[in-house]
Amino acid sequence: MKAIDIDVGGTFTDLVLTWDDVRYVAKAPTTPYDLSVGFLDVLTAGAEQLGRPLDQVLPEVEIVRYSTTVAMNRLIERKGPRLGLITTEGHEDAILIGRGAQWTDGTRISERRNLSVQAKPAPLVERDMIVGVGERVDSTGRVLRALDDDDVRAKLRHLVDNGARAIAVSLLWSFVNPDHERRIRKIIREEYKGYHVGYLPVVLSHEVVGKVGEYERTMTAVLDAYLQTSIKFELESTWDQLRANGYRGTFLLTHNTGGSGEIFKTTASRTFNGGPVSGLMGSFHIGQALGYRNVIASDVGGTSFDVGMVVDASVRSYEFRPIIDRWMVGISMLQTTTMGAGGGSIAWINDLLGGRLEVGPRSAGSYPGPVCYDLGGTEPTVTDADVVLGYIAPDGYFGGKMPLDRDKAVEAVRTKIAEPLGVSVDEAAALIRRIVEQNMASAIKREVHLRGYHPEDFALFAFGGGGPTHVAGYRADVPTAVIFPQAPVFSALGSSVMDIMHVYEQSRRMPFMAPMTEQIVIDRDAFNGVVDELMAKARADLESEGLGAEEIVFSVELDMLYGGLVHVKRVSSPVLRIESEDDARLVYDAFEKEFSEAFSPHVVNKPGGAYLDGIVLKATVVTEKMALPVHDLQPADPTAARTGSREAYWPELGKRAETEVFAFDSLQPGNTVTGPGIVEMEFSTIVVPPGQQLRIDQHGLGILEDAGKDDQS
């Protein structure tokens, strides 16, 4: 298998090149002005490791998978086109009214507490660009009022004359009967041809979300329309680079559902959060190979800290209220948490809070980057603190390709942090690290405890460029942290083991179990009809991507709830179709079990009956998974991997100390580095403080734990 997996982060673009049984890794600075430049740079760096030019490597590559942050970046910058929204007459203000607590969507907890400054986000569609057209369909799909074509043409002209450059269409109950939305698109194409210069992208809500929820469905369509043009431009440039260098295979994008799909079958909103999802899915698949059923995936990048959880060998934990930026959407998204804490996070003095030191959420990004990059940055960052403390060698950063200016980092920490706080430079730098690591540890504890679990029951996977450098400080109550040789590019590695998967959702409210009598009453024909319809759509999509029907594995998940309760639980259905009473009983038993585990057995309300709320079909093509090597364990003494020593400041000792430095690639399975120690990787550095140790297990992975633990390899 020859494949390329790329993850575009805020600071670096990462690559994993799979060439038969060997995986090569490369990194290049992200180029926010044109992501295709950094994309080409990292491709070239990967090809160089094979000793061949890029245009000789790409023709042999079978598949390229890509995790992008374009959607996130464009929303943050608010650089989308002027939108028009066509909805049902009388519902023009629905998305402006929003949900009752819409002003909290997408905000941090600390921001929500300050009610006096809270406000709803500026809408992506201005009120004068929202029009209602004459039509009405009821909840059963029956047409109550036929679509007024002339009204559509007049309202469309109004939007275009006022500057609309993309149109979202969201009508009431369109996912039950989409004829009116399809007719509106046909009218738009009649009025504004696709081959004309002023081409108008059109997004229909029933095509992006087939679920009930007017606000969420409409906002998903609006976000897709808003992001489509900019993502299309970025990915077209990337696609052109691939084609120009001889690539003729499939170009897949990571979806926030945990799968991936071809660029021509992916909507813009489904690419949001692709990097963190790749890391989570990589943790899931590799955790299974290692025998870990419970894993906390932690990714420390240049701009953010991402946390996801694998629980009981499953990642089927979806966002209860999926939010993209500041808006609730109707698409399923795997649950991950992102906070502004990374190597580029800026340390600053908060004068409003009595001169308290804070770190993040602002980031220096890749340009100008930390002060030590010497690219124009003036504010000290976490990476600057690492350099000042002696953990990161200025001449070894980024594989030695990016020499750092330690003197400038020291001066920035001195003038901006140490002097205002009245402490030494080393103490100030150590304080920066402590604060950012405490923030990360708090995020992990919050995720674990709020879901009802205990940190000591998990293994912590630390990856990203800064994960190995900071995991000793943020692992807190988690007993074991696992560091991979590919940790700096782990999200790209994760996408290399992800399955190709499409997710199809359809709202369908049906009684499943009768109240009081507890008799199964599901309409099997109606249920199977929806499943068959979704399967036909999935086959058509995947076959159009060049994948045979025999390769597709189907599975069904169901949104179900009890009568009298509002909590909907998504359950993995043990059967694909319900053909008998026994099949239906298996489905109910699975629902009761998962509902009990999620909410408590005491709230199971069988006398209230059970209801089906929606059907989710997953169409998966399983990809080849990586095999983990197994080595014989060597003695614990790591001396053979020692490359020298340097002075580093250790808060645990309260002073600088001469510290041994080791090369990660030279450490053998069984070797143990007891802190204080520094272990250097090609694109990262593992910091082993006093009281902790790093041992290499039989797979060549780094296991960070408290010093003195027995070898459990």
UniProtKB/TrEMBL annotation:
Residues 217-502 form the Hydantoinase A/oxoprolinase domain. Residues 526-701 form the Acetophenone carboxylase-like C-terminal domain. Transmembrane segments: none annotated. It holds the Pfam family Hydant_A_C. This is Hydantoinase/oxoprolinase family protein. It comes from Blastococcus jejuensis. Residues 4-191 form the Hydantoinase/oxoprolinase N-terminal domain. InterPro entries: ACX-like_C (IPR049517), Hydant_A_N (IPR008040), Hydantoinase_A (IPR002821), Oxoprolinase-like (IPR045079).
